[in-house]
Amino acid sequence: MTTEASRDLDTFDNPNPERDYAIHIDTPEFTCLCPMTGQPDFASIEIEYVPDQLCLELKSLKLYFWSFRDQGAFHEAVTNQMLSDLVNAITPRFMRINAEFNVRGGVYTRIMAEHRAEGWIAPEKVELA
Fold this sequence. Notes:
alpha+beta, 2 helices, globular, single chain, 38% strand
């Protein structure tokens, strides 16, 4: 497998497609460039998803994130592009991306974007004492 930045997302078959379960991925070292100044923007990206038939392969996801390093993008645009790309790769039942960008000029930015497959209903959360 390559160790160069890539927009290619590898997948693998969901080992338990008969069940709803959540996958949570944290990436605390995401970088892209400010499209106005060219200065680096740093963010923590959290991905939560309920897979359907496919899951994301993590090494390719790391290389995918790396591909943004030299790209100028507004926070809102890069977060929504990620959601679109990841949904297109695996067609999950549900996916949420939270992008929390570090402070720049005294302002923090947090972007949340979601996808729900048509007809999918989230299971009811069970609280145990």
